[in-house]
Design brief:
The chain has 44 helices and five strands. The N and C termini lie far apart (75 Å). The protein is elongated, with a radius of gyration of 33 Å. Among the domains are: 170 residues, Serine Threonine Protein Phosphatase 5, Tetratricopeptide repeat; 109 residues, Collagenase ColT, N-terminal domain (Glutaredoxin, 3-Layer(aba) Sandwich); 126 residues; 108 residues. Helix 41 packs antiparallel against helix 42. Helices cover 67% and strands 3% of the residues. The protein has a five-stranded mixed sheet with strand order 1-2-3-5-4.
Length: 872
């Protein structure tokens, strides 16, 4: 935080402290009365703590420690004027106290007396300049560290020269741990924050502040850990407001507004004027379209400090986390009107603007924050990413701005634009919306870059794409290793969000947004989206269905990755139920109501039926879907089957499990049990007993024909037919598999091979297109597509495929150049001669290329004897 030129001089002096300080042993207050008062504070007995401090009769250096404790207790209760009074009176008694003045900066701020705040900062600077020898204890170093940060000192320098040495000098000094961890949290260095608070927990296992700090360090990466730690903190200190606010924050994200209200009530009972608590209340009011309630809550948050930028910053940050980026940006600008150099608001505004597609100002703000604060991890990540993205290639038309790596743009940029165009033509018309501005789509070849652009920091590996409204970010196939997802389905899904988010002005719950996008994937292509499978069947018929009224919570702290996927599936199933029961027009009416600020449960009730009825009927709808999956199969999981083993050893791949089964074959239960039939088939395949394996697989397919996924019987049956050299039957099994799986690369590749041998060029082309929709970065599909297009007389597609094949370093470039030259000759392209020359450069004895070269020369009117061709 900056205070102008005058304080820039003070900040310069602060840097001198950092070089000059040496350490002295800690000198701490002790005694039964002091220990009891501290215990009262740490367990949340703030009023008894205040009373104990008032009764104490300290003298000398003890005065500042007792008054610091009393002030902290008063601040925890929201009694800000009283806290300031304690500090002011104590400074009369101990006029050279660094600790009282440092805490007095906070009390002056909380009472809105910014002139007094500045005065105390000046006084601290003067005290340290005059009496540096007196402030060498760890508690002084922590106070100096906080002041140095206020004056704009480099955070890493403060950490290394003040906070860490204070911890080393006295590992039992909790404030040193708390200050170090909080600094890491403030700078979004969650890894360091987690390590710091984990180490602190070893020293202070029952400290609510330590537990809360560790919880917040886990917030971006492990919500379940965060929730456990916050609840544990409240067990240690039932009045710990920061832990309550952490839970309220989570409940808002989960769209459980009633529980969030209850948690905020609890926090405000402890501290009736906590600015953050009232900021969260304002967020809830905004999300409920209660403008009067929002204004009232905001004003209460600003009661004592009328220009507190933290209030609007928090309101805006939470609105942005709920995809209200435009409203969030307004709040950040309001915070910056109060304090133009408030870096958290500037950083959040940068992220909001980037998500709104206002890139010029967004990148500029990120650069400015990084220049002022080199430790802010989010700012550093964004500035680094900006340098990478400046090398991207941009493809545009009137509807889209597509940015991607140059090499990938050359391979499938045109396909991506075409796919997005089809999505727009379909979904915009279907939902009756007009998009006023082009949609920005950014595809990242590095997962970490996608994560930084999307979330501000690396991590979150489970996301394939994210939509902010008119900006889409996506992982490219290159970022996904050997098993990429269908990128065409991902872009279709994300464009579905573009439509629904803009239709509702971003005022929709996550479950409905995801549910419509998954539903629309299936409408576009039966192999896309999600369908009922054995795992989902078990979850639907078990206890894993989430009530529709609370469905967004299923995305927040899932038990496993499978539960995340199930949340997407259930959401799409709710959409399918609503459309089948009430019609598409009712769904569109719900979306329009959301855009007007109506809450989701009220919007559903208004246009369909009461929520209790919806939940009851949907549960029956979902159960009917589950029971319709292989109704003649027994789905009970026998002991010893592969499914049981998988539950015990999650993460084993198909090959590992098959090998294990071959050594420990499960008993055959008999009848038509799905799991036993599957285990029997995999065991027989592992033993290469091809004829015997047919029976269980054919039975599985007959009783459960719509199979997909890693264990599907069509894939296993194709292996069996291949083992028996039954090519025609193998093709049939592969075609069934390919028609039902969005990313079955093995099936697509094998079908191309078999169809090429049979010269069934349409099937070759079809599966090449399927392959390219999953991985357009390999040469094989382009080779097959070019040959198929050439054979089908489709000259331009063949030329395009050969040109892309050349970009991927094919094993026989001479042949590719030659074929491309022949095709270009048909269209009278001058480039034909260049490609035949390149073919001869690769293979000088290529006689067909020589002949084509001479023919091209003659066609151009050049005398044959004057043409110098490469020598064979």
């Amino acid at each position: 935080m900056q205070f102008g030129r005058k304080f820039a001089k003070i900040a310069a002096r602060v840097r001198c402290w950092l070089a000059a300080l040496v350490f002295a042993p800690a000198c701490l207050v002790s005694g039964q009365g002091w220990d009891e008062a501290q215990k009262l504070f740490l367990t949340g007995e703030y009023q008894p703590c205040v009373a104990a401090c008032e009764k104490a009769s300290p003298n000398g250096f003890q005065i500042e420690d007792w008054r610091v404790l009393q002030t902290r207790a008063l601040l925890s209760l929201g009694r800000y004027p009283e806290a300031e009074g304690v500090i002011s009176n104590a400074l009369v008694q101990v006029d050279n106290s660094l600790l009282l003045r440092e805490l007095g900066i906070e009390t002056a701020k909380r009472t809105g007396n910014l002139a007094l705040r500045r005065k105390r900062i000046e006084e601290i600077n003067q005290l340290v300049s005059d009496r540096s020898w007196a402030y060498r204890q760890p508690k002084h170093l922590i106070a100096l560290g906080r002041v140095a940060l206020l004056l704009g000192a480099d955070p890493k320098t403060v950490l290394e020269r003040l906070l860490q040495p204070a911890r080393q000098a006295d590992p039992n000094f909790r404030d040193a741990w708390l200050a170090s961890g909080q600094l890491a949290l403030d700078k979004h260095d969650y890894k360091l924050a987690a390590k710091t608070f984990t180490d602190a927990q070893k020293q202070f296992p029952d400290d609510a502040e330590v537990l809360c700090g560790l919880a917040l360090a886990y917030q971006p990466s492990a919500r379940s850990n965060m929730l456990f730690l916050l609840k544990t903190a409240l067990e240690k200190n039932a009045n710990h407001v920061p832990s309550m606010l952490g839970l309220a924050d989570h409940l808002i994200d989960a769209e459980d507004y009633e529980e969030a209200d209850a948690m905020l009530d609890r926090a405000l009972k402890v501290n009736p004027w906590h600015p953050q608590a009232w900021a969260y209340r304002a967020v809830l009011a905004h999300l409920r379209n209660d403008s009067a309630g929002e204004a009232d809550a905001r004003q209460k948050g600003l009661k004592f400090w009328k220009t507190n930028p933290e209030v609007d910053h928090l309101i805006g940050a939470k609105l942005s986390q709920n995809y209200r980026f435009a409203e969030g940006a307004v709040c950040q600008r309001r915070a910056l009107e109060f304090e133009p150099e408030f870096l958290p608001a500037r950083m959040q505004l940068a992220e909001d603007l980037l998500r709104l597609g206002e890139e010029a100002e967004g990148w500029q703000l990120a650069d400015e924050v990084h220049e002022q604060d080199g430790y802010d991890v989010t700012a550093y990540n964004l500035v680094t990413l900006h340098g990478t993205m400046q090398k991207f290639q941009t493809l545009t038309n009137e509807d889209f701005v597509l940015r991607m790596g140059a090499s990938e743009a050359a391979l499938y940029g045109d396909r991506a634009l075409a796919l997005l165009g089809r999505a727009k033509a379909s979904l915009v018309t279907k939902y009756g919306i007009t998009l006023e501005r082009p949609t920005v789509v950014e595809i990242f070849p590095e997962q970490k870059d996608f994560a930084v652009r999307t979330f501000g920091m690396p991590g979150n590996p489970g996301f394939l794409g994210v939509c902010f409204g008119r900006v889409i970010t996506a992982n490219s196939p290159a970022s996904q290793g050997g098993s990429p997802a269908n990128w065409e389905a991902v872009l279709w899904h994300e464009f579905g969000h573009v439509v629904t988010l803009q239709m509702t002005r971003n005022k929709m719950p996550r479950w409905l947004s995801e549910g419509i996008s998954v539903y629309e994937e299936l409408q576009a292509n039966p192999a896309w989206g999600q369908t009922m499978n054995p795992q989902y069947r078990e979850m639907v018929l078990g206890d894993d269905l989430t009530p529709v009224s609370k469905l967004s919570s299923a995305f927040m702290s899932p038990k496993s990755n499978l539960h995340v996927q199930f949340a997407y599936y259930q959401s799409s199933l709710v959409v399918e139920y609503l459309v089948s029961k009430f019609g598409l027009e009712k769904l569109k009416a719900i979306l329009r109501s959301l855009g007007e600020g109506v809450e989701i449960n009220d919007a559903i009730t208004k246009h369909t039926a009461p929520m209790k009825q919806i939940e009851k009927e949907f549960a029956a709808f979902a159960r009917a879907k589950a029971e319709a999956l292989g109704p003649e199969l027994d789905w009970e999981k026998p002991e010893g089957t592969r499914s049981r083993r998988r539950e015990e050893a999650d993460g084993l791949n198909f090959l590992t499990m098959t090998n294990a089964l071959s050594k420990n074959p499960p008993p055959h239960v008999g009848g038509y049990n799905y799991w036993s039939l599957l285990d029997q088939a995999t065991k027989l395949i592992s033993e290469k007993k091809w004829p015997e394996a047919k029976a269980p697989l054919n039975k599985l397919i007959k009783l459960y024909p719509n199979q997909s996924g890693a264990d599907n019987a069509y894939a296993l049956l194709a292996v069996v037919h291949r083992g028996l050299n039954e090519t025609a039957a193998e093709r049939v099994a592969l075609e069934k598999w390919a028609a039902q799986e969005a990313d079955a690369l093995d099936a697509y590749l094998r079908l191309m091979e078999l169809a090429e041998t049979a010269k069934d060029w349409k099937v070759v082309a079809q599966n090449a297109e399927r392959f390219l929709a999953v991985n357009p970065l390999l040469p094989q599909p382009y080779r097959f597509l070019s040959r198929a297009s050439e054979a089908l007389g489709e000259t331009q597609p063949a030329i395009a495929a050969y040109q892309k094949l050349l970009l991927l370093d094919p094993p026989d470039p001479a042949d590719v150049h030659f074929r491309l030259a022949k095709l270009l000759r048909q269209t009278n392209e001058p480039a034909a001669k260049r490609h035949v020359l390149q073919a001869l450069e690769e293979a000088p004895r290529f006689r067909e290329a020589h002949r084509l070269f001479l023919e091209l020369a003659q066609a151009n009117g050049s005398p044959t004897n004057s043409v110098t061709a490469p020598h064979p």
